[in-house]
Amino acid sequence: MICVWESRTGDNLNYLYSIAHFISALLLGLVGLQNNSFLEYGLSWLIASVILLVVVLVNVIILIYVERKELGRFMDRRGPMVVGPAGFFQNFADAFKFLVKEMILPESADPLGFNGTLVIIVASSLLIMAVVPQAPDFYFVNSDLGLLLAFAIFAIEPFAVVIAGWASNNKYSLLGGFRSTAQMMSYEVPLLITVISVAILAGSFNFMTIVNEQSSHVWYVLPLAIGFIVFLVSMVAEIERIPFDTPDAEAELVHGWMTEYPGIKFAFLQLTSYVRSLAGAAIMVLLFLGGWTGPLLPPLAWFYIKVYAVFTLFVWLRGSLPRVRIDQVLNIGWRSLLPLALLNILIAVLFKSVGWF
After folding, report:
1. Residue 142 CB coordination number (10 Å)
2. Interior CA angle at 327 toward 324 and 328, to 5°?
3. Which of 89, 237, 269, 289 could form a disulfide with 83 if both were Cys (CB 3.0 to 4.6 A apart)?
4. Does the structure show a pLDDT above 70 at 337?
5. Does 297 fall in a domain?
6. Which residues contact 356 (CB under 8 A, 6 or more apart)?
7. CA–CA separation, 332 and 337 (whole Å)
8. Does residue 89 fall inside a structural domain?
9. Tally of structural domains, the chain
10. Average pLDDT over residues 308-332
């Protein structure tokens, strides 16, 4: 695992750790501790974490605004346009509204499970972005098993969700937790099989290697078009976006497993759904769309152009399709996507065996 802040990492400058190292050296120099390598290491790591967190949260705020404006266009309306320039500050107004609401713990709820799962869900969602490189010169961790690590973190939420539903001591929350866990586990199988097909072509689970292999050959969306479709549908279901939002189902389950979460807690859960959407779009870009490769513009710019394009596809699906029933959700995962994922992996093996990749 490569995780350093030196001025050079391989042949590439890692701006995230270079900036963090510069700030930490400046701060320690001001207090006369510039020769303490242990403090410098810890402070650099902390500052890099804060920088990455800020980058993620800023993009999440923009994604929420983009989704509102795009849904407005899909529905032949203008979307937010009053609070701030072009309605951009509407997100902050909503956040303030959640912040001033009373914090309530349901009388019969289990405090440890109710609050502890909130911490797990928020932390695991943010942690995903730590293992997803955003450019060859901007990443937090470059691991040889980064792809597997990202999906291992994705797999934490189903367990936390069912505990949250149970700890709420509400039948709607419990049913929502069961639905969410069943849905996530159903779609993780074709999702991981599709990931394996990408690893077969690239010969690695390292995100950097996968992107470099695509730049040397072709974007994997072309040879693995079936896998791209399977991954897209599975990822939308994994992050519980419409049309696969049956765990929420406002008309049936009030708001699913999040029913009893009030105020700022509910806001944090909604925020993490967008963090996971950002992570899902980023992983799709890295696996199928060539990552940060592109002409003229800097790699980081190309990365986010593609991420926002994929997120627009998520929004397009939300604005076009109705909610799928829970039995249909499971049938799609097991009876449709799983066979297609297996077919996709056979195609990947065929391409690799004939030496095309």
Report:
1. 21
2. 45
3. 89
4. yes
5. yes
6. 223
7. 6
8. no
9. 1
10. 89
Tokens standing for 256? Answer: 């699913």
Cα separation, 334 vs 348, in Å, equals 21
Per DSSP, which regions of 175-271 are E strands?
none
Task: Tell me the C-alpha distance between 68 and 311, whole Å.
Answer: 12
Task: List, in order, residues 6 or more apart from 327 with CB less than 8 Å away.
Answer: none
Q: What pLDDT does 312 receive? A: 93
Amino acid at 101: K
Closest CA to 1 of 146, 152, 202, 203: 146
Residues 6+ apart with CB under 8 A from 11: none
Q: For residue 31, with 0-12 CB atoms within 10 Å meaning exposed, 13-18 middle and 19 or more buried, which class applies?
A: exposed
pLDDT tier for residue 38 given thresholds of 50, 70 and 90:
confident
**CB neighbourhood size of 296 (10 A):** 6
- Rounded Cα distance between 47 and 110, Å, is 35
With H, G, I as helix, E, B as strand and everything else as coil, classify residue 355.
coil
Q: Are 352 and 200 in contact (CB under 8 A)?
A: yes
Cα angle 259-279-323, degrees, rounded to a multiple of 5: 45
**Which residues constitute the domain of residue 315?**
102-353
Sign of the four-CA dihedral 276, 277, 278, 282: positive
Average pLDDT, rounded, for the chain: 85
Report the pLDDT value the prediction gives residue 34, as an integer from 0 to 100. Answer: 67
Rg of the chain, C-alpha, whole Å:
21
pLDDT tens digit sequence for 174-196: 888 888 888 888 898 999 999 99
Domain contains 17: no
User: How do residues 212-270 score in pLDDT, each as one tens digit?
Assistant: 999 888 899 999 999 999 999 999 988 888 888 877 776 677 777 888 888 888 888 88
What is the pLDDT, as a whole number, of residue 8? 35
Q: Do you know the residue count of the chain?
A: 357
Domain assignment present for 39: no
In order of 2, 132, 299, the CA distances from 141 in angstroms are 6, 8, 17
pLDDT at 12 over 70: no
Per DSSP, 105 falls in state -
Residue 299 in contact with residue 292, Cβ under 8 Å? yes
Ramachandran bin of 291, using left for φ above 0, alpha for ψ from -120 to 50, beta for the remaining angles: left
